[in-house]
């Protein structure tokens, strides 16, 4: 590098002195404590590059990469904007997929008194499941989808395995009302069932039988009987425990 000197022979360094002490300590000791903040580490990196200190430059790069990784959220839930985007997400991941469609404005009837509360419960359950299984399942949210108002879809190996529709039409006198339900046990069961598709070899047939006794995995679910939901969940857990033992 070019070295500038004044008339007395002193070397002129046209840099801010903020990190110069750190530079000197690194040259003396061969190591130095790096700044805690991302910005100051970037500033030190610029100084290390200016003074051509390759080892300190590399140490700053490693520290910055670690800070970026630590700052990344553990749980990511894509909000899809089109059917094409949904298909790309489902086909490009090796994980099972759980999609929640929320489209409350898409309704021409009034809601029943418990519908708003149940809609929020569905959203809260989706958030809890996405935190719990974020490393194993891809959770996506759809707010622009079909005519459905609240619907769960479950995908394995790129194909839809099950669906839980949480809305229905009820009649009160001469008017129609939309009812939003919260089949919590059913949703838990389908989520546990979709974990069987983590393996590229496909799920074990015994576990498939445990979750498909009412068509939950083999096709679209079509019953909302709570006792049947809970017994199916119990069968699934029992089979998984037997396989592990």
TrEMBL record:
Pfam families: BTB_2. InterPro entries: BACURD1-3 (IPR045068), SKP1/BTB/POZ_sf (IPR011333), T1-type_BTB (IPR003131). Gene3D superfamilies: Potassium Channel Kv1.1, Chain A (3.30.710.10). Residues 3-60 form the Potassium channel tetramerisation-type BTB domain. PANTHER family: BTB/POZ DOMAIN-CONTAINING ADAPTER FOR CUL3-MEDIATED RHOA DEGRADATION PROTEIN FAMILY MEMBER, RE57120P. It comes from the Eukaryota. This is Potassium channel tetramerisation-type BTB domain-containing protein. It comes from Iphiclides podalirius (scarce swallowtail).
